[in-house]
Amino acid sequence: MKTLSDISAEIPANIRLYTGQPLGLVALAACGLLTALFGLSALVVYSQTPGAQGETPRVWPRSSQISRDHQRSTLVVFLHPRCPCSRATLRELERLLVRREELRTVIVMLRPEQCAAGWEQGILWDWSQSLSGVHVQVDRGGAEAQRFGVATSGHACLYDNDGRLQFSGGITPARGHEGENRGITALKQHLAGHVAEATNAVFGCPLFSANDRQKCE
Asked: Domain 73-216 classified CATH 3.40.30.10?
């Protein structure tokens, strides 16, 4: 059986590249590089692909069990407790809430209907609980998410003290990425009393999927 060295020796000199390496070895290296570039490209595309967005009601839903502040704006952020992308959402939220006494913030954590109590607890739950002035509550079966037209983890909804929608969307620049973005900028402008964008793409994991039963494992 011929070895790679035997095969390389049989390659005519006139088809060896200027590098001095046999064409076969260079081609192998090129294939590896192309594979790596393809994988990187796929990762970039995924990180820049937004999640599904429903229609958020323009007025605070009457059937909602979330407590709204009638004296100041209320920001509601929906999270899937097992979504790694939402760590970036919490980091952005943490920065936004520094010295924000004019804002009531509620983090709503999904618990699928069939999952036992406590399933929602973990890194994101503990982190949310540690944020000063933030209220955290469980959304069993995603009832609240559906009332607010939310389908993707990391979706934030800002309502003014009269219960009118000011902003609905994501607050990260990409999946799992932090940094200044249109969502955070819009929230800051709204809270400062300025006219700003009313929506932004949401980058995160789906709140609801066909394999919901597997989520309880």
From this structure: yes
Q: What is the pLDDT of residue 45?
A: 45
| Closest-CA residue to 186 (of 176, 177, 202, 199) | 199
Residue 95 in this model has a pLDDT that exceeds 50: yes
Apex CA 146: angle with CA 213 and CA 115, to 5°? 25
What are the extents of the domains in the chain? 4-47, 73-216
- Cβ distance 151 to 145 under 8 Å? yes
Q: Which helix (H) or strand (E) holds 174?
A: none
Q: What is the structure's pLDDT at 177?
A: 85
Distance of CA 201 to the CA centre of its chain: 10
- What pLDDT score was predicted for residue 216? 78
Global pTM value: 0.78
Which structure tokens are listed for 169? Answer: 């969307």
Per the CB < 8 A criterion, the answer to whether 105 and 134 are in contact is yes
What single-letter DSSP state applies at residue 108? Answer: E
Please give the torsion angle defined by the CA atoms of residues 148, 152, 156 and 160, in that order, rounded to the nearest 10 degrees: -20
Residues 98/132, Cβ–Cβ less than 8 Å: no
- Residues with Cβ within 8 Å of 28's Cβ and at least 6 positions away in sequence, in order, are none
Q: What is the pLDDT of residues 34-55, one digit of tens each?
A: 444 444 344 444 456 888 888 9
Tokens of 104: 């009531």
b/e for 116-154, b at 16 or more Cβ within 10 A? eeebbeeebbebbeeeeebbbbbbebbebbebbebbbbb
Query: What is the mean pLDDT of the segment spanning 52-76?
Result: 96
- The widest CA-to-CA distance across the chain, in whole angstroms, is 83
